[in-house]
């Protein structure tokens, strides 16, 4: 089997202690928040941290609190997240996204914070060391060319988190804590459109909490395209949320695409405002989204097709939000009702 | 069976004999084995698709703490290969590497981690060579030879046969259909990665325990490569966690750990990583095919000209057989008066292709069955009725001189038509939904061995003693297909005991009689017949002793459910163990052997050895699909399959095999592909496997499977034990074309290549919307320099099974 490189393992019991270790260790340390992605990546020598700081013993990272909205500890496993009371009713898009991450076994290990900080993915990158040696490596690790588009100056690895598009659509903010203090940012502002430098999290910061506003008047959904309904990273994620007046007129809307860029791609929804979610309005924003999406040939399935179906998937999401019964379509695509 | 008695074991659904160990995790796969003082091996593999090795410096690796041995190509001067005509591999490449992943050196160290570290200290200087990525490139660049043997250039094998004058038949047909198809390569994806453990025993002999399907062939190759007498080597086939053909070839790592154990005198183990399994490969050949098929206006075949082009990868493997198999079984399903096939396998700089479930036949079966659907469409015929009207008959010969034996194909078609509601669905479902039907046939064991010999294909030995214990020994290999259970069942049925009373020892060349291995769906028939013979012989001794004791005629003795008794007087009875004691007293130590060799086949022409089988299984399948016209997204809600198994030895298990075949077929139909990536030539010479990972090589999971309704059609075959034919490979074959035909029925587009993905369906729908032919598939067929076809007259044209001269040549000669 592939073996892990050597590393020191630290298991702090509090956020403060973890922050101190990070401050002390500097960039040589990485946080382990489930490890379902990081540990396989370490076996392929994508990351070789001298120190892993395991977060699983920190009780505070599991905390869930209601108040002015919902605060979710970043250390909740995705399975624990799905068990949070009221989540499905009030923040349906997040529940649908979390329920479609990987498999039940991986959701039992993987955490919400880990999914938000998930390394970007690329078929030139998610390979073991020997394979990458055979292509003389790539810009993201050990090399200098982006093989997806050799003229590209930046890495085109794909943002593959399911929960981020859903959470951005819900207006989430995240809390980042370091030894020097804490700050809150809009989740959208956590990400860079760069496959290498994809997070604005500083190396000494810990993503501790996800803060969701009150859902009053909002409805949300998440649709995921992948080859197999049982498994697989997204080839397209559509996180959508709308706030409508009593007559169905859209007052506010958010639409975020996953897996078609190096960051969650926020689509402007101006064209929906003041309108009802008619077929025409949905088709119009679907076309906008399709034109903005830039899938590359670095993940599964044909890239032109992946771009083509963006409008369809945006349509599924918005039709579900307007109240259409999308159960049959959901079953065909996801093989499950989520 | 001579008595014709009611069957107690055969045909009853039972828990298989190895199930307990499997579900409790007790079964020991190769990687579960561990020995004192065991060392670990890792292989250094080529990062280049094609290169000359200029030098290898292992001195730093040898000095690395914990390293015991470093081996390179110079330690393996003798080449090997599964086929006698393709001995083109070395355990470690001596001077050339032919694909990314070709092994060049091995490190044996105290643990896997240390061995892996030391690999990085080996310095190999490569001189890169031009690379060949596709068959078209292989044909166009004959001067860049990947091997210096073969037919010419990069053509490994060229095979051409003509059974009757096909051009004449096509000229006289009401219609001639010409279609080109492409079947992408794919791999076996067994759950168990290959592992091997070699050790020198106290007596100085070598034992290799390995996840192999064919311990006998591996045994022969070990003796050859290690230059040791075979009698000094023992190969134990550990239970395989899936094989599907991927563990048929002797593998580099098996030879390397054996050599290392001999040198070091310590056990040496290796377990391949998942990526290495993709490099070991030997999977489905990518095949480009052209069919020219003549039909009468009522849809009967008149003649077929089939051309195939196989992408073989870097080595020969089973390639010579694979090439034949893209042709020879094509005429088994339907009456085909004349048949010509031309097949060509080329070398490319990719992992070698070989046998995967269906070996060479799924590709042409896909093309043939999709073309039949097109013919039915064009002629306005029902595809099921058209097929029913021309199925081959029992005991018939085919144009290429294969003897059919029993056939339940017509019944299979009727069954799936009935189960699926075909008549209410086909061409009648709303747009976006459709059903497709396809059929197939497969061998129950290859008629000849991989190497020429006159010895049995399978041997079984039985040992009984006064405890009532029955031990059965056979070289056959349990790869998950249930061969141990079949063996126990046949012995138990014959001796009137339960399978739980039989102790099974299989797949051990030091202990068990030779069986050629678990390939070509041969085990039930060949091992089963050998077991039947051995058990029958022992039964005679038991009957003789019991008859004497019970004072009845031997012919009136029955063995059933652990009792031995009089057919006429149930009070005259004893236990099986008592009868064994009597027999041991009368005859001495009890035991018997049985063996089996397939019957001689009628074909006499050179090359007629590939295709014949003691029996053929048949399958029919209906697939229902739903296609979203906006996205091309495909869903398969249900599959119905009927399989002519002759007789199911264990019906619950047979159904499992059928469903497993359907599962693998559906994966190949919809997503599986072993594909490669070239980088821009100006920047890199790389040619790499696109996705050598379990996650990214897309294969269905159990949750992605639709419901499969299975009908077992039982037409017992006289050549088979209790009439039982194969179930391991055949049921896969009709699935892929049935999916393609169902998609046509749903949305009216033809996808003439596999896998069938939503993007291809959508592209075809766009063509349809533009008024263009709604088809996605290969556009042209390259100019392949096929060999001159050997001409053989079909049986019904006065042939005798030998090569002959075509009438047209005689006429031509007369004309000059």
Strand content of chain A: 15-25%
Q: How many helices of chain A does DSSP assign?
A: 13
Total strand count of chain B, please?
Answer: 32
The rough form of chain B would be described as globular
Instruction: Assign the CATH class of the largest domain in chain B.
Output: Alpha Beta
How would you describe this structure to a colleague?
The complex is a heterodimer of chains A (338) and B (816). Chain A has 338 residues and is an alpha+beta fold. Chain A has helices spanning 15-25, 38-43, 78-82, 87-90, 92-99, 104-109, 112-116, 129-134, 163-169, 279-292, 303-308, 310-322, 327-334, and strands at residues 8-10, 29-32, 51-54, 64-67, 69-73, 173-178, 181-186, 206-212, 218-225, 236-244, 250-258, 265-267. In chain A, the strands form three sheets. Chain A has a five-stranded antiparallel beta sheet. In chain A, strands 9-10-11-12 form a four-stranded antiparallel beta sheet, sandwiched between helices. Chain A has a three-stranded parallel beta sheet with strand order 1-3-2, with helices on one face. The longest helix of chain A is centred in the C-terminal third of the chain and has 14 residues, at 279-292. Chain B is 26% helix and 24% strand. Chain B folds into three domains: 41-129 and 194-271, Alpha-Beta Complex (Aldehyde Oxidoreductase, domain 3); 159-186 and 283-447 and 605-776, Aldehyde Oxidoreductase, domain 4, CATH 3.30.365; 456-596, Aldehyde oxidase/xanthine dehydrogenase, molybdopterin binding domain (Aldehyde Oxidoreductase, domain 4), CATH 3.30.365. Chain B has 816 residues and is an alpha/beta fold. In chain B, the strands form eight sheets. Chain B has a seven-stranded mixed beta sheet. The longest helix of chain B is centred in the middle third of the chain and has 28 residues, at 523-550. In chain B, 62% of the residues are buried. The interface between A and B is large, with 33 and 41 residues.
């Amino acid at each position: 089997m592939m073996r892990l490189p050597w590393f020191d393992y630290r298991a702090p019991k509090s956020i403060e202690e973890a922050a101190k270790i990070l401050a002390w260790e500097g960039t040589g340390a990485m946080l382990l928040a489930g490890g379902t992605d990081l540990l396989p990546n370490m076996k392929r020598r994508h990351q070789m941290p001298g120190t892993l700081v395991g977060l699983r013993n920190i009780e505070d990272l599991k905390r869930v609190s209601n108040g002015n909205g919902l605060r979710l500890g970043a250390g909740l496993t995705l399975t624990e997240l799905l068990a949070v009371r009221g989540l499905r009713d009030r923040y349906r898009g997040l529940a649908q996204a979390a329920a479609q991450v990987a498999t039940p076994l991986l959701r039992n290990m993987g955490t919400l914070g880990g999914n938000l900080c998930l390394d970007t993915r690329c078929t030139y990158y998610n390979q073991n060391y020997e394979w990458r040696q055979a292509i003389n490596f790539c810009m993201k690790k050990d090399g200098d060319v982006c093989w997806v588009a050799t003229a590209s100056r930046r890495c085109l690895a794909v943002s593959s988190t399911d929960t981020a598009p859903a959470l951005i659509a819900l207006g989430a903010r995240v809390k980042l804590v370091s030894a020097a203090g804490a700050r809150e940012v809009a989740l959208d502002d956590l990400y860079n459109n760069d496959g290498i430098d994809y997070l604005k999290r500083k190396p000494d910061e810990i993503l501790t909490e996800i803060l969701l506003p009150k859902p009053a008047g909002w409805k949300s959904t998440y649709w995921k395209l992948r080859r197999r309904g049982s498994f697989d990273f997204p080839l397209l994620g559509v996180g959508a949320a709308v706030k409508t007046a009593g007559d169905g007129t859209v007052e506010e809307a958010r639409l975020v695409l996953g897996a078609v860029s190096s960051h969650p791609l926020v689509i402007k929804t101006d064209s929906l405002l003041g309108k009802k979610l008619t077929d025409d309005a949905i088709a119009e924003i679907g076309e906008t989204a399709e034109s903005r999406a830039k899938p590359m040939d670095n993940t599964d399935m044909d890239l032109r097709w992946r771009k083509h179906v963006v409008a369809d998937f945006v349509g599924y999401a918005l039709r579900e939000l307007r109240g259409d019964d999308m159960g049959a379509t959901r079953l065909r695509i996801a093989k499950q009702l989520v | 069976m001579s008595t014709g008695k009611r069957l107690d074991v055969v045909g009853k659904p039972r828990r298989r004999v190895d199930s307990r160990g499997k579900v409790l995790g007790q079964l020991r796969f190769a990687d579960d084995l561990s020995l004192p003082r065991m060392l670990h091996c890792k292989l250094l593999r080529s990062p280049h698709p094609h290169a000359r090795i200029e030098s290898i410096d292992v001195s730093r690796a040898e000095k690395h703490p914990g390293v015991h041995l470093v081996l390179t190509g110079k330690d393996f001067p003798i080449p090997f290969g599964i086929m006698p005509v393709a001995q083109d591999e070395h355990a470690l490449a001596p001077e050339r590497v032919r694909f990314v992943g070709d092994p060049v050196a091995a490190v044996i160290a105290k643990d896997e981690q240390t061995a892996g570290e030391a690999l990085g200290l080996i310095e190999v200087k490569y001189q890169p060579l031009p690379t060949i990525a596709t068959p078209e490139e292989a044909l166009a660049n004959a001067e860049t030879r990947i091997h210096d043997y073969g037919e010419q250039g990069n053509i490994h094998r060229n095979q051409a046969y003509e059974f009757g004058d096909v051009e004449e038949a096509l000229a006289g047909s009401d219609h001639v259909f010409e279609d080109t198809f492409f079947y992408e390569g794919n791999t076996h994806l067994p759950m168990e990665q290959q592992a091997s453990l070699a050790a020198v025993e106290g007596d100085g002999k070598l034992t290799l325990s390995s996840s192999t399907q064919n311990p006998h062939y591996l045994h022969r190759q070990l003796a050859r490569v290690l230059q040791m007498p075979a009698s000094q080597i023992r190969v134990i086939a550990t239970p395989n966690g899936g094989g599907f053909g991927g563990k048929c070839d002797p593998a580099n790592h098996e030879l390397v750990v054996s050599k290392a154990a001999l040198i070091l005198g310590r056990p040496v183990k290796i377990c391949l990583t998942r990526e290495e399994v993709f490099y070991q490969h030997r999977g489905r050949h990518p095949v480009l095919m052209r069919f020219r098929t003549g039909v009468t206006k009522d849809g009967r075949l008149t003649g077929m000209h089939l051309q195939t082009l196989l992408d073989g990868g870097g080595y020969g493997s089973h390639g010579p057989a694979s090439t034949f198999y893209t042709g020879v079984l094509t005429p088994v399903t339907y009456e085909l008066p004349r048949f010509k096939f031309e097949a060509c396998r080329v070398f490319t700089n990719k992992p070698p292709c070989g046998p995967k479930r269906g070996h060479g036949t799924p590709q042409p079966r896909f093309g043939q069955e999709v073309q039949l659907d097109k013919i039915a469409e064009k002629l306005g015929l029902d595809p099921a009725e058209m097929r029913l009207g021309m199925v081959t008959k029992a005991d018939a010969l085919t144009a290429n001189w294969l003897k059919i034996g029993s056939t339940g194909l017509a019944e299979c078609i009727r069954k799936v038509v009935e189960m699926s509601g075909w008549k209410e669905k086909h061409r009648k479902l709303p747009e976006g939904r459709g059903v497709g039907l396809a059929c197939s046939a497969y061998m129950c064991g290859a008629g000849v061995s991989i190497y020429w010999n006159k010895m049995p294909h399978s041997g079984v030995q039985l040992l009984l003693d006064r405890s009532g214990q029955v031990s059965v020994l056979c070289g056959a290999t349990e790869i998950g297909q249930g061969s141990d259970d079949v063996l126990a069942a046949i012995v138990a049925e014959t001796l009137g005991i339960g399978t739980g009373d039989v102790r099974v020892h299989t797949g051990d060349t030091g202990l068990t009689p030779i069986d050629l291995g678990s390939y070509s769906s041969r085990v039930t028939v060949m091992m089963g017949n050998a077991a039947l013979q051995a058990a029958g012989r022992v039964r005679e001794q038991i009957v003789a002793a019991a008859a004497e004791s019970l004072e009845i005629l031997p012919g009136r003795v029955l063995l059933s459910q652990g009792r031995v008794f009089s057919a006429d007087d149930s009070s005259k009875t004893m236990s099986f163990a008592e009868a064994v004691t009597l027999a041991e007293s009368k005859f001495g130590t009890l035991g018997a052997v049985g063996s089996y060799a397939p019957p001689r086949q009628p074909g006499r022409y050179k090359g007629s050895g590939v295709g014949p089988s003691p029996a053929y299984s048949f399958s029919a399948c209906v697939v229902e699909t739903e296609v979203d016209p906006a996205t091309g997204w495909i869903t398969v809600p249900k599959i119905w399959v009927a399989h002519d198994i002759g007789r199911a030895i264990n019906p619950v298990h047979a159904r499992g095999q059928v469903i497993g075949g359907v599962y693998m077929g559906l994966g190949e139909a919809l997503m599986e592909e072993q594909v490669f990536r070239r980088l821009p030539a100006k920047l890199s010479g790389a040619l790499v496997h696109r996705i050598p990972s379990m996650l990214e090589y897309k294969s269905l999971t159990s949750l992605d499977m639709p419901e499969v309704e299975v009908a077992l059609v039982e037409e017992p075959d006289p050549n088979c034990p209790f009439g039982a034919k194969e179930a391991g490979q055949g049921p896969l074959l009709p699935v892929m074309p049935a999916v393609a035909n169902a998609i046509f029925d749903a949305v009216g587009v033809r996808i003439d290549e596999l896998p069938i993905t939503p993007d291809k369906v959508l592209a075809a729908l766009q063509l349809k919307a533009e008024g263009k032919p709604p088809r996605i598939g290969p556009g042209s067929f390259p100019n392949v320099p096929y060999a001159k076809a050997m001409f053989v007259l079909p049986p019904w044209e006065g042939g005798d099974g030998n090569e002959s001269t075509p009438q047209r040549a005689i006429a031509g000669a007369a004309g000059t």
